[in-house]
Amino acid sequence: MTTLTHRGRRAELGRNSDKKPDSEDDVAADRDLNDDNPDDSKDIRLTLMEEVLLLGLKDKEGYTSFWNDCISSGLRGGILIELALRGRIHLEPLSIRKKRLLDRKVLLKSDAPTGDVLLDETLRHMKATESAETVQTWIELLTGETWNPFKLQYQLRNVRERIAKALVEKGILTTEKQNFLLFDMTTHPVSNATEKQRLVKKLQESMLERWVNNPHRMDRRTLALLVLAHSSDVLENVFASLADDKYDVAMNRTKDLLDMDPEVEAAKAKGAEMIWAVLAAFNKS
User: Which of 66, 114, 207, 263 shows the smallest number of beta carbons within 10 Å?
Assistant: First the structure.
């Protein structure tokens, strides 16, 4: 099976079912999801995958960089973290034989629908598997990076386009057709710049004005988004508008954060193991 490619960096850093969750734990997890960050917009709720894609899109052109070969796997990592934060999946408990994050299997905690087509499709895949798989294996399977033809059925297809359509429905993107000499391509320019600016500002402030110097004191979704933005090679888009001195501070702090040992930090983290497991998977080259 192919391995995840190493992510490039600058400065060496480098979703619908109408059904509701039917258990009290699932309802609580979804409620916690909405209350996790009080500074988020109360009108528009975005999944981690939507946020990553929004960060990666060129505002006027409406597509991601042709040179970015990391965002596909990054979006799949976002699906795993989103499901974990919603209480649908978790890592199997530590054992003598399985202490490392990358050795522990992803277990299905609840298959209650989330209301997001990509998340629910992933839950169906996990429920259909004969044996549990690791975080890294699931990212590869969902991306289609497998030599096993019997496991190609687990690939999530047209992920970027499906996420973009969800953002169109939320009024953040619009849909256009652009001609590229030999072919026409559907693009999704940003129509609600305020929402993207809010997202960028939140991440910038987390590394500057609201820097806490401790990942376990950070909002979990902010921590997850930083990990995913890095893994998807769109982190540069977050800090590019900063002045040089603030840019250097933000990038250095982010680098220090992402250079932490996922194994050590996961042992300290309550409810954030999947975030560190995804980072460990992308760090492996």
Answer: 66
Residue type, 190: V
What pLDDT is stored for residue 14 in this prediction? 40
Under 8 Å between Cβ of 31 and 45: no
CA-based nearest residue to 63, from 199, 130, 161, 200:
161
Let me know: does 254 contact 207? Beta carbons within 8 Å. yes
77 close to 139: Cβ distance less than 8 angstroms: yes
Which of 273, 268, 270, 262 has the alpha carbon at shortest distance from 90? 273
3-class state of residue 64 by DSSP: coil
Q: Which residues are CB-neighbours of 260 under 8 A, at least 6 positions away?
A: 215
Mean pLDDT per 10-residue section of the chain, whose length is 285 residues: 39 40 53 50 80 95 85 97 97 85 95 96 94 95 89 93 96 88 84 94 96 94 97 95 97 96 91 95 85
Query: pLDDT at position 194, please?
Result: 94
As given in the structure block, the two tokens for residue 67 are 């040179």
Rg (CA), the chain: 18
